[in-house]
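Hi, can you check this record?
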Amino acid sequence: MATDTGSTPQFFQVAALTDVQILPAVPELKSRLVAGDRLLAMFGTAEPNASLPLHSHPHEQITYVLEGAIHFQVGDEEHDLGPGEGLMIPGGMTHGGVRVGPEGCRFLEIFTPLRDEYVALMPKAT
């Protein structure tokens, strides 16, 4: 969620990520979000053999695979991504994880600017 902290660093522990509420998305995807003033990170888990829909949005995006495998389409190009591999996706480009591997996939996606529709789903900090 956006804050007005200016240049004050925001700290979170990855080990505490399980405390971040899972947000609704497509049924085969579980997402946890962390956001700052201009940057949003999605920690996602996709079910084995899932197909995530093609879509586009005006935000720049980095997708980085942590575990498992996913076949990703960006425009007319297709990429098989495994652990340690990722893509930079320009805003406005149609893309999606069209086929998740048989063991599922854990990934990190980073967006800028903030995706307001995701921020609106996040619980307010107390």
Q: What stands out?
A: The two ends are 12 Å apart (CA to CA).
